[in-house]
Automatic annotation (TrEMBL):
UniProt xrefs under Pfam families: FG-GAP (PF01839)
SUPFAM superfamilies listed in its UniProt record: Integrin alpha N-terminal domain (SSF69318)
Source organism per UniProt: Streptomyces graminofaciens
Signal among keywords: yes
Protein name stated in the entry: Integrin-like protein
Superkingdom in the source lineage: Bacteria
Position of the signal peptide: 1-29
Gene3D superfamilies: Integrin alpha, N-terminal
UniProt keyword list: Glycoprotein, Hydrolase, Repeat, Signal
Length: 476
């Protein structure tokens, strides 16, 4: 059940803080790059986070490896390892920084190359322990190079800044903006685009979701963010995940434009993806909740995913019909059986696998088969998501490298993105528990086992010391 709540004027006094420093807008470039195309060659690249990686002997300092795409998909022959010890990246690797906890991408300075935004919520500052930091790494013709810190003007009221990230045009001005989640009083911050490599930022705002109509618990803060044009009006809505105040139950809300003035509450979950499932021009929201009802009232036996269909209405998500459809492994046509601990819905991603104009859904269930893990693919259609032709992939599937082993957690993170420029989304799956916590990544062209590839952290420069959990975070 959804509840739409307008924020009262009194609440707004607690919700909105003063804007960040304003400067004159920058000129627009002719053509901005697609997200995750860091070298402007038209192929989407993969960014793989290992926030538990050891760097320079510092445990859990964190690392991100970017594997560049090509006509045959991402290959380990061309990659870029990023840590806080990388030349040009601000700061230095320290124990517990957790660099790579969150990732997002957009062409922030509209120069034709996508940029990468990396969160390190465990970063200590002169002001506070676990204050957190966010770094923008700039794209170029040769790939990622050079970086700057995305300033947190509210560090006194925000901790773990950078534990959640997404990018989008949230104010409808044509520039990409960056949303950052953290914990504490002001746990959601937006920085407006356009961005530059030096100088002041263009402006922004902060929100105290602890004072929202349905309050978010400040100790958990904003744990996950996604974005998309739900209203089909050229402005991206923000999907915000946290926990209900005083509990650890999932709480999910959608905000659009002046999001501080109202929030649309949709079924609670811990992750989401936004794309057009039924081809009506409006982006739809898929929310994943892997938890059991005994742990979270919003959960289900073995976990669930819910599709909330968008439409062109004033407040974004479909209020006229309340069309929300929930899928579990007990749903007719969904492969498998719903069992406690499957964690179906831990990872979700939308993309058009078969080039039919409808976004398809991949769902990760890393708890399946004693945490060996599996993923399920459901297809979009004019009538919405359907179970017709649904498929399951795991390391037990013929053609998928490796073998299913307890604790691999295959499907912890999933991604559908066209990495070969053939207009079909390819599937990337991670298993951060592979090889006793080293982690690994699989790439499956058009979400099939044909030509599947796999690689681990050592192939792309990430140390295997101390169980890095390579693939705990995934962007592309």
């Amino acid at each position: 059940m959804r509840i739409r709540t307008a924020t009262t004027a009194a609440t707004l006094l607690a919700v909105v803080v003063a804007p960040l420093t304003l400067t004159a807008p920058l000129a627009h470039a002719a053509d901005a790059a697609a997200p995750y195309d860091f070298n402007g060659d038209g192929y989407r690249d993969l960014a793989i986070g290992a926030p538990a990686a050891t760097v320079g002997g510092k445990s859990k300092a964190g690392a991100v490896s970017v594997v560049y795409g090509g006509s045959t998909g991402p290959g380990t022959s061309k990659y870029k390892l990023l840590t806080q010890n990388t030349s040009g990246v601000p700061g230095g690797a320290e124990a517990g920084d957790a660099f790579g906890t969150a990732l997002t991408s957009a062409d922030l300075n509209t120069d034709g190359y996508a940029d990468l935004v990396v969160g390190a919520p465990g970063e200590d500052t002169a002001i506070d322990t676990n204050d957190g930091t966010v770094v923008i790494v700039w794209g170029s013709a040769s790939g990622l190079s050079g970086a700057r810190t995305l300033t947190n003007d509210g560090s006194d009221d925000t901790d773990r800044y950078g534990q959640a990230l997404t990018a989008g045009d949230f104010d409808g001005d044509g520039d990409q903006d960056v949303a950052v989640g953290g914990t504490g009083k002001f746990n959601l911050r937006l920085t407006d685009g356009p961005f530059a490599k030096t100088g002041d930022f263009a402006g922004g705002s902060g929100t105290a979701l602890a004072y929202a109509p349905q309050p978010f618990d400040a100790s958990y803060g904003v744990e996950y963010l996604s974005a998309g044009d739900i209203q089909n009006d050229g402005t991206d809505s923000l999907v915000i995940h946290g926990r209900a105040k005083g509990t650890d139950d999932a709480l999910t809300a959608v905000g659009n434009g002046d999001y501080s003035y109202w929030l649309e509450y949709i079924p609670g979950g811990h992750v989401s993806s936004v794309a057009d499932v039924n081809g009506d021009g409006n982006a739809d929201v898929v929310v994943g909740n892997h938890r059991e009802t005994s742990a979270d009232a919003s959960g289900a036996l073995g976990g669930e995913v819910t599709v909330v269909y968008g439409q062109s209405v004033t407040d974004g998500v479909d209020d006229s019909t309340g069309k929300e459809v929930t899928y579990t492994q007990a749903t007719s046509g969904v492969p498998g059986t719903a069992k406690s601990g499957d964690a179906f819905g831990t990872g979700v991603s939308l993309g058009d696998v078969n080039n039919d104009g409808y976004a398809d859904l991949v769902v990760g269930a890393p708890g399946e088969s004693s945490a060996a893990g599996a993923v399920t693919v459901l297809y979009g259609s004019a009538s919405g998501l359907t179970t017709t032709g649904a498929t399951v992939l795991s390391q037990s599937t013929s053609g998928v490298p490796g073998s299913s082993e307890s604790g691999d957690r295959f499907g912890a993170r999933v991604l559908l993105a066209d990495t070969t420029k053939d207009a079909r989304a390819d599937l990337t799956v991670t298993a951060p528990g592979e090889n006793s916590g080293d982690g690994a990544v699989w790439w499956l062209k058009s979400a099939t086992a044909s030509g599947a590839k796999s690689f681990g952290p050592s192939a792309v420069g990430v140390s295997t010391s101390g169980a890095p959990g390579f693939g705990a975070v995934l962007g592309g």
